[in-house]
C-alpha cells in the first residue's frame, strides 16, 4: 500500500458581503488493491505425474513457451515455507473457491503431517489459504530413519476434483506408530465424514514375519508410492519392510476393499532381505481406464503363485493378481538388490503399452493385454532396451544356496518415471542425462540427450512436460544436486531446475543455477516438478538435517 497523500486547497467564495478565503487540507489514504484475479486456465494436477497413466504431460499450458522460458524473462518468483520436508509432489487445482474467492491453488503435504493450500499466483505475506495438521493430541510424526528426521506424509496424495476431496496417507506415533487414511475437503482442509481411518491389513502367511499363520502390516513399512484414485477406489503400496504390500479402499466410505502381500510365504535374503517391496521410485500405481491397476515390485522371491518379487503386476480392484511380467533374470536381480520397483511405470498414451524400469537399468515395454509372464530372454515383452546403450555382464552369488547368477546390467540405474509427448518418451537415470526416445509402431528408438547429466547418488530425475496441445513442448527436469540424506555426502546442495525444448532436448532453455536469485531449496530425492497456468512448482528442503525440525519450501517459477 502506498503512503497517505496530503494536499492543501484554497477555496474562495464571493457573495454580497465580499470575498471569503478558506484553506482546506485533504488527506487521502489509498486502500490496498485487491489481488488480481487468477490467470485464466483450467489445468489441474490432481495426482502424481499428471494423470492415472502417469504420462507427466500437461498439454494445456498456453503461457510458457520455448520462446519466453529463458534467463531474464523467466525465473523464481517466490517461495512458501512449510513445516517439514516435501517428499510428496505438489498438486494443483485451478479456480478453486476458498473463503468466498477463487484461487489457483497449489497444495503441499509435509513429513510433519501437515497439508497446506497456497495461492499459486499471489504470495502476499506467505500465509496459506488453509493449513491442516493431521496429528491428533499427543501425537507426533513417526521418528524416521529414512526419511529423516520425521516420517509423516511421504507419498503424493490424490484429489477427486468432482467431490473436491484429497486422499492422503499419514504416519504418526503416540506410544506406537501407525498409519491413517484421510479424506480432506480441498476448500477448507477439514476431514470429511468418516475420515480418518486407521490403516490395518493382514493375510494368511508363513514367512518369518508371520505369527500363528497370519502376516500383519506393521509400522516398520514405509508408505512410499503415490496414491491412485480410479473408478472409486484408492490404491497405494508399502515398502521398506520384509515383504511389500498393496492396499485398496473405497473412496466413498474409506472401507478396505483389497489387500495384497507380495510374498506372504517366502523370505527374502541378502543385505536388505527384501521380499517384493512396492517402491515405484515414489511414483504411483498406474490405471488403464478399464478398472485394472499396475504396480512394480522390488527384489524378492518369485514363484508365479504367491511370491511376486521383481515383477510388473496387473491387479483388479480387489488386488487379485490378474497377470504378470517378470524378467527372466529375476533371481540375479534379487541376489543383487536390483529392485524393478526402484523406478516407476508409465502407460504410453493411446496405447496398451506400459514402460517400467528399475535398478538394473533395463527398460521394459510390456503389453497390458498380455504381460508375458516369465520367458527366456524376456520374449514376452514387447521390447527391452538399455538407456544410452550402457550395459555390461555381471555376476552374483546366492548367499543361501551358493548358486551363481549372471546377466547384463546397466551402468546407470532407473529411479524415475518416463514422460511422453508428441511421439517421444523422455527418461532420466542416475549419473546420466535425460534421453529422448522416439516411439513408433510399438518400438522405442534411442535419440538425443540433454547436455546436463545428473550426479551420481541423486537417484535420477523424473521429467515433466508442458505444452499447448502438440506445440510449444518444454521438458522440465529437477537436478537434486546433493540431496537431503544423501548416502555419501552429508552436506546438501541446492537443487537445480532446468528446461529444454521437448522437440529437441539438446536445446537448453533455462537453468536456475545461472542466477543466485533463482536458486530453490535443497534437493530431495525422487521429487519432480509440475507445471500449470504459467507457473512451475517444486518441493524442496529449506533447512538441512542439522536443524531439529527442518522446514521445507514450495518454490514457484514463472514469467517476470
Residue fraction in strands: 35-45%
Average pLDDT level: 92
Q: What does the radius of gyration come to?
A: 26 Å
CATH superfamily: Quinoprotein alcohol dehydrogenase-like superfamily
Secondary structure layout plus pairing:
Layout: E1 5-15, E2 18-28, E3 57-58, E4 74-82, E5 91-98, E6 101-109, E7 114-119, E8 130-133, E9 140-143, E10 150-151, E11 158-160, E12 165-174, E13 176-185, E14 197-198, E15 202-204, E16 214-216, E17 228-230, E18 233-238, E19 245-250, E20 256-261, E21 286-287, E22 293-296, E23 312-315, E24 321-325, H1 330-335, E25 345-347, E26 353-357, E27 362-367, E28 383-386, E29 392-397, E30 404-409, E31 419-421, E32 424-428, E33 434-440, E34 443-449, E35 464-468, E36 471-479, E37 496-501, E38 508-511, E39 530-532, E40 535-541, E41 552-559
Parallel strand pairs: 3-35
Antiparallel strand pairs: 1-2, 4-41, 5-6, 6-7, 7-8, 9-10, 9-12, 11-12, 12-13, 13-14, 15-16, 17-18, 18-19, 19-20, 21-22, 22-23, 23-24, 25-26, 26-27, 27-28, 29-30, 31-32, 32-33, 33-34, 35-36, 36-37, 37-38, 39-40, 40-41
Amino acid at each position: 500500500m502506498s503512503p497517505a497523500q496530503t494536499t492543501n486547497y484554497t477555496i474562495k467564495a464571493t457573495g454580497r458581503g465580499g470575498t471569503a478565503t478558506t484553506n482546506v487540507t485533504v488527506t487521502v489514504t489509498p486502500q490496498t488493491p485487491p489481488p488480481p484475479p487468477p490467470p485464466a486456465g483450467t489445468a489441474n494436477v490432481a495426482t502424481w505425474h499428471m494423470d492415472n497413466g502417469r504420462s507427466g504431460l500437461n498439454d494445456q499450458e498456453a503461457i510458457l513457451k520455448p520462446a519466453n522460458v529463458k534467463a531474464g524473462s523467466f525465473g523464481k518468483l517466490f517461495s512458501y515455507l512449510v513445516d517439514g520436508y516435501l517428499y510428496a509432489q505438489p498438486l494443483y487445482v485451478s479456480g478453486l473457491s476458498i473463503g468466498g474467492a477463487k484461487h489457483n491453488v497449489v497444495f503441499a503435504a509435509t513429513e510433519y503431517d501437515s497439508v497446506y493450500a497456497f495461492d499459486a499466483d499471489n504470495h502476499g505475506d506467505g500465509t496459506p489459504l488453509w493449513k491442516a495438521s493431521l496429528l491428533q493430541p499427543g501425537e507426533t510424526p513417526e521418528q524416521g530413519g529414512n526419511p529423516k528426521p520425521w516420517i509423516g506424509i511421504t507419498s503424493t496424495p490424490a484429489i477427486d476434483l468432482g467431490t473436491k476431496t484429497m486422499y492422503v496417507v499419514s504416519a504418526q506415533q503416540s506410544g506406537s506408530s501407525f498409519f491413517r487414511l484421510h479424506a480432506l475437503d480441498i476448500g477448507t482442509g477439514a476431514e470429511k465424514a468418516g475420515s480418518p481411518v486407521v490403516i490395518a491389513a493382514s493375510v494368511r502367511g508363513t514367512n518369518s514375519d508371520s505369527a500363528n499363520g497370519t502376516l500383519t502390516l506393521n509400522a516398520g513399512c514405509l508408505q512410499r508410492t503415490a496414491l491412485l484414485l480410479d473408478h472409486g477406489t484408492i490404491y497405494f503400496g508399502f515398502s521398506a519392510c520384509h515383504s511389500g504390500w498393496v492396499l485398496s479402499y473405497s473412496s466413498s466410505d474409506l472401507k478396505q476393499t483389497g489387500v495384497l502381500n507380495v510374498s506372504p510365504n517366502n523370505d527374502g535374503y541378502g543385505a536388505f532381505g527384501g521380499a517384493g517391496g512396492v517402491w515405484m521410485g515414489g511414483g504411483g500405481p498406474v490405471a488403464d481406464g478399464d478398472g485394472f491397476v499396475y504396480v512394480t515390485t522390488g527384489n524378492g522371491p518369485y514363484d508365479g503363485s504367491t511370491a511376486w518379487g521383481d515383477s510388473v503386476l496387473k491387479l483388479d480392484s480387489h488386488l487379485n493378481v490378474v497377470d504378470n511380467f517378470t524378467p527372466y533374470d529375476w533371481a540375479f536381480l534379487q541376489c543383487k538388490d536390483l529392485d524393478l520397483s526402484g523406478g516407476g511405470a508409465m502407460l504410453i498414451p493411446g496405447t496398451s503399452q506400459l514402460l517400467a524400469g528399475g535398478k538394473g537399468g533395463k527398460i521394459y515395454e510390456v503389453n497390458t493385454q498380455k504381460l508375458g509372464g516369465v520367458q527366456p530372454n524376456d520374449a514376452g515383452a514387447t521390447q527391452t532396451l538399455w538407456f544410452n546403450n550402457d550395459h555390461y555382464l555381471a555376476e552374483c552369488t546366492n548367499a543361501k544356496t551358493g548358486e551363481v547368477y549372471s546377466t547384463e546390467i546397466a551402468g546407470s540405474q532407473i529411479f524415475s518415471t518416463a514422460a511422453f509427448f508428441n511421439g517421444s518418451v523422455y527418461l532420466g537415470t542416475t549419473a546420466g542425462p535425460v534421453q529422448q526416445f522416439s516411439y513408433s509402431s510399438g518400438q522405442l528408438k534411442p535419440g538425443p540427450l540433454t547436455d546436463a547429466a545428473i550426479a551420481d547418488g541423486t537417484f535420477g530425475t523424473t521429467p515433466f512436460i508442458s505444452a499447448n496441445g502438440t506445440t510449444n513442448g518444454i521438458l522440465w527436469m529437477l537436478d537434486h544436486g546433493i540431496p537431503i540424506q544423501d548416502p555419501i555426502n552429508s552436506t546438501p546442495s541446492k537443487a537445480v531446475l532446468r528446461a529444454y525444448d521437448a522437440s529437441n532436448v539438446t536445446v537448453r532453455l533455462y537453468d536456475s543455477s545461472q542466477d543466485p536469485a533463482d536458486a530453490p531449496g535443497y534437493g530431495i530425492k525422487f521429487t519432480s516438478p509440475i507445471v500449470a497456468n504459467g507457473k512451475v512448482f517444486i518441493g524442496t528442503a529449506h533447512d538441512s538435517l542439522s536443524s531439529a525440525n527442518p522446514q521445507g519450501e514450495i518454490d514457484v517459477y514463472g514469467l517476470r
